Amino acid sequence: MSAKVLILGANGMLGTACAEVFSNYDLTLWDRDQLDITDAAAVETSIKKLRPHIVINCAGYTAVNKAEKETQLAEKINGEAVGNIAQACKPIESILIHFSTDYVFNGESKDGYVEFDTPEPLSAYGKSKHLGEQLLQKYGAKYYLIRTSWLFGPNGHNFVDTIQNLAKSQKWLKVVIDQHGNPTYTLDLAKKVKETVETEKPYGIYHVTNFAGPFGTTWYNFAKAIIKELKLNAIVVPWFTFLLPGNNAKRPKWSVLKDSRLEPLRPWQEALVEYLNK
């Protein structure tokens, strides 16, 4: 029998990608209806009973702007819940895979960030994800902390689908040019995570994104690539973050994640073409 793998947040964009990639394992797929990860007792009981070899935590609070007002909720889901999962995994020696974000950095370094750079989050969302990282490292004996960024893929709300839909109804699309990062295809990410586990890489922190060059790309250039590939008529207009309505959370300007410990994924442009034509 293949090893048991538990995926938390299994109905989301990243969770469904992991379920597809890890389909040759003995999978258990749980979302919020099956387990409230903020309930420490429930997490301990459920994971202890299942005794999975690997737990993949894809659950998370991702509403960056709303987190400024819902700080406690973001901290419960992105922070405290990670500690709950880590504490449940440790005594049964389950391997815990947890995903974090480029938003744990302040974005002041144009050279990007490697795995061992010191986090300094700007927003409530970033701080909640950093709390999760801290609790994972405090409680989790066997963990892979995977930082990634700018996710797109099937079965979830993402930038690519948003641009595609807006371009059908709007001629001019204002997209920010003052944020730099790495777009990441969820299926590429899940495959790299699986490879990392199966080749028994050392536990610890890893950065996994699609390759975007030394300075990353911008949301503006990302949007232009989407429009070009789909041959749409919309015109992408360079814009600035501070001009966007409802944008009350501080975002890092330069948050390029450098994957210094693993072979880089293919360029994001190749992944984008595959996604749009899949």
From TrEMBL:
The keyword Chloroplast does not apply. The keyword NADP applies. Signal peptide: none annotated. One of its GO terms (biological process) is dTDP-rhamnose biosynthetic process. It comes from the Bacteria. Gene3D superfamilies: NAD(P)-binding Rossmann-like Domain (3.40.50.720), UDP-galactose 4-epimerase, domain 1 (3.90.25.10). Pathway: Carbohydrate biosynthesis; dTDP-L-rhamnose biosynthesis. GO terms for cellular component: cytosol. Keywords: NADP, Oxidoreductase. Residues 4-277 form the RmlD-like substrate binding domain. It holds the Pfam family RmlD_sub_bind. Its EC number is 1.1.1.133. PANTHER family: DTDP-4-DEHYDRORHAMNOSE REDUCTASE, METHIONINE ADENOSYLTRANSFERASE 2 SUBUNIT BETA. Catalyzes the reduction of dTDP-6-deoxy-L-lyxo-4-hexulose to yield dTDP-L-rhamnose. Belongs to the dTDP-4-dehydrorhamnose reductase family. This is dTDP-4-dehydrorhamnose reductase. The gene is rfbD.
